[in-house]
Amino acid sequence: MKAIRADLLDFVDTPVWADPSSAGVRWRPDHWLLIGDDGRIAGVQPGHQPPGPGWTCEDHRGRLLLPGFIDTHVHSAQLEVIASYGTELLDWLHRYTFPSERAFADPELAAAGAARFLDALLAHGTTSAVVFPTVHKVSADALFTAAHARGMRIIAGKVLMDRHAPDGLRDDVAQAERDCIDLIQRWHGKGRSRYAVTVRFAPTSTPAQLAMAGALLRADPSLHMQTHVAENRAEVRWVRELFPEARSYLDVYARVGLLHRRGVLAHGIWLEEDDLPVLRDSGAHIAFCPGSNLFLGSGLLDWPALTDAGVGLSVASDVGGGTSLSMQRTLAAGYQVQALAGRRLTAWSALHAATLGAAQALQLEDEVGRLEPGLVADLCLWDWAAGSVDARRQQVAQNLHEKVFAWMMLSDERHLASAWVAGRRLYDRAFSRATT
Ligand code: GUN
Ligand code: ZN
User: What pLDDT does 432 receive?
Assistant: First the structure.
């Protein structure tokens, strides 16, 4: 049984858009968080009431303890193409990403890549993720195996793509269906792993493969779904040519039954207005990927338009389209994307979307996303500052929002001291590498 003393911050409700007053925020400065032997949060109590004998205590007064971040859209096989120069989405896929993903056909390479990826996530303060591996069954298997060894909550699935991709990166409908069924039996619900039916995006699946993906979801409503939608204008035009019968890009997915309550659609920048009620009624949500949207020049998502329409939203790194696994860097990019369009993202809306909001969107709120007794102890301990500039900014901050907003804008993985997954410390800066 362990106890950690720090400043505790989490959310109990959805913050109001553009309102820096702290509705929805739970701020418990200088508190103990207790972790039971079952890896769950056992309690929270004020700093002046130390836990009794039997508790191993760590005093981190003056540091910030948050629920581990949830990255709802990231590619485990794209670390090696991060920061590739000079292209928009479709050229980026063909020039950099597809060639790099081919290597994940090799089981040994896939295993090493999965381990490197998950350890990097933990070293950036992300303890749960919704992940695209590659088209290769072994890449999904390797990812689940590595996540299971670390006890991490991972939602993933073999990527479906049977056209418009180079040799070595295409499956076919029958083999893909067999691979999915096998992986679902092996991994869906095992430990903290869950399976997501994973269509890469409409252009790389034939209508027959999209129909097969929809049928998998209908056969087991407990599955998740992940894909990309309406990220880039040339992509949207291509989808219109490939699927002239569909009302919109989103409609390609709606027609085959891919939209459902546990669906994550990355981007959604160029959705049609008529798509919003369809998305809202399905319960699927949009993963806002601002770092990627800026880097690939994809566009500026209108966050409040989605929430006003009742559509859910989480925030995601989309590495390797995004240039950092750090959720603070991603949220800082999110602030800048909204600012470019004259809107203001508070630290509360941003951090909520990366914790409780994401957990709710994935129907995982009874497990992760808050510092609440009974939830799994997926936690990250952060420094408020790591250099003279952010230290001074913290000193002069006048109120809680100012302090947390400055932290969000100025911090990154260098501020992470420790990360725990189900109560086990898997990252410790003192060893400056992830440990398992
Ligand atoms: N659309 C289809 N595949 C991808 C991908 O790997 N990354 C991004 N950002 N968009 C995609
Ligand atoms: Zn992506």
Answer: 63
Residue-averaged pLDDT of the chain: 97
Residue 23 confidence (pLDDT):
83
Closest CA to 375 of 365, 383, 367, 363: 367
Backbone CA torsion sign across 92, 93, 97, 103: negative
Task: Indicate the pairing of strand 416-421 with strand 424-428.
Answer: antiparallel
Q: Give backbone dihedrals phi and psi of 5, rounded to 5 degrees, phi first.
A: -105, 120
Helix (H) or strand (E) holding 156: strand 153-156
Atom of ligand 1 nearest to the CA of 132: 6
Give the model confidence (pLDDT) of 389-429 as tens digits. Answer: 999 999 999 999 999 999 999 999 999 999 999 999 999 99
Give just the sign of the alpha carbon dihedral 183, 287, 307, 234: negative
Residue 161 burial (CB count, 10 A): 24
Which one, of 179, 231, 174, lies nearest residue 206 by Cα?
Answer: 174
374 CB neighbour count, 10 Å cutoff: 13
The CB of 292 under 6 Å from ligand 1? The reply is: yes
Atom from ligand 1 closest to the CA of residue 235: 1
Give pLDDT < 70 ranges for the chain.
432-436
CB 352 near ligand 1, within 6 Å? no
